[in-house]
Design a protein that fits this description.
It is a single chain. By secondary structure, the chain is of the alpha/beta class. It has a domain of 136 residues: ABC transporter ATPase  like domain (ABC transporter ATPase like fold). Helix 2 packs antiparallel against helix 7, helix 6 runs antiparallel to helix 7 and helix 8 packs parallel to helix 9. Strands 1-4-5 form a 3-stranded parallel beta sheet, covered by helices on one side. The protein has a two-stranded antiparallel sheet with strand order 2-3. It is built from 12 helices and 7 strands. It is 35% helix and 12% strand. The structure holds zinc ion (ZN). The site of zinc ion has 6 residues, from loops.
Length: 287
């Protein structure tokens, strides 16, 4: 498919042709459960780009201006304001032979990632470390109280996809695959209505989600659809399947005994097809 619209895929699948309104799609995004960044310094707030605005906010405070701190001083990715000992990681890693690496809190910054003088800069009595410790929910409430709409706009999608409990500065290495997947989804919601109409492919996005959060995920999907994008989901969860416009049921069993199209159509059409296991289970969900 990527080949057809001018991109390139990793490896071509076995097919003879793809037809349909392909010209309406200009981009394809595969939203998998791989980590959002390789560096232990990447985290939800940097990935969502809200951190760019938070850094600027701190740099614009009176004391920061007197000391000539720029936004980059509040970054843990470059030298300047970050702790020199742990390079902004807040911890030091000791490599052990034959054993897993040991992570110890940095003795110089005590896990706060920044130099002492940087932590003296505050916005409404919170320094940059305090902000990174906040959960998404707490941060939205805090910035709402102080009218920081630009920052809220970039944090809101994280809450919308059910990640309100995640800390802004939580290292991406500690996030689950499902959480990483939803952060990627949120980053597309932040971009809003782009001209590039995208086909999003999700691999089992409901993994590990409670019923309440599946509703949040669905609302995020609807937001993408409203922006003119298309979504394709590989999924077993019936609560999500029943909301699809069109279902392709592959089976009849899993693995080697599957791979054939057993039924296809709208949910209402699929439940009428007796051969379809999905259709049988779906009956009670939509009647
Ligand atoms: Zn340190």
């Amino acid at each position: 498919m990527l080949k057809k619209i001018g991109g390139y895929g990793e490896k071509a699948g076995q097919f003879t042709d793809i037809s349909g309104a392909i010209s309406k799609i200009s981009n394809i995004e595969f939203i998998n459960q791989n980590p959002i960044g390789r560096s232990s310094r990447s985290n939800p707030v940097t990935y969502s780009k809200a951190y760019d605005d938070i850094r600027s906010l701190f740099a614009s405070q009176k004391l920061a201006k007197i000391r000539a701190y720029a936004a980059k001083h509040f970054s843990f990715n470059v030298d300047g304001g970050r702790c020199d000992t742990c390079k902004g990681e807040g911890e030091v890693t000791i490599e052990m032979q034959f054993m897993a690496d040991v992570h110890l809190e940095c003795e110089v910054c005590k896990g706060k990632r920044f130099k002492k003088e940087l932590l003296e800069i505050t916005f409404q009595d919170k320094n940059i470390h305090d902000v990174l410790q906040m959960t998404v929910d707490e941060a939205i409430a805090f910035f709402m109280l102080h009218n920081q709409t630009k920052i809220i706009k970039k944090l809101q999608p994280l809450q919308d996809v059910g990640l309100g409990y995640v800390q802004l500065g939580q290292s991406s290495s500690t996030l689950s695959g499902g959480e990483a997947q939803r952060i990627k989804l949120a980053s597309f919601l932040i971009k809003g209505n782009s001209q590039e109409k995208t086909l999003f492919i999700f691999d089992e996005p409901t993994t590990g989600l409670h019923f309440h959060d599946i509703n949040k995920l669905l609302n995020s999907f609807y937001a993408l659809l409203e922006n003119g994008h298309t979504i394709m989901v590989v999924e077993h969860n019936l609560d999500l399947i029943k909301c699809a416009d069109y279902i392709i049921d592959l089976g009849p069993e899993g693995g080697e005994k599957g791979g054939y199209v057993v039924a296809q159509g709208t949910p209402e059409e699929v439940v009428k097809q007796k051969k379809s296991f999905t259709g049988n289970f779906l009956t009670e969900k939509i009647l």
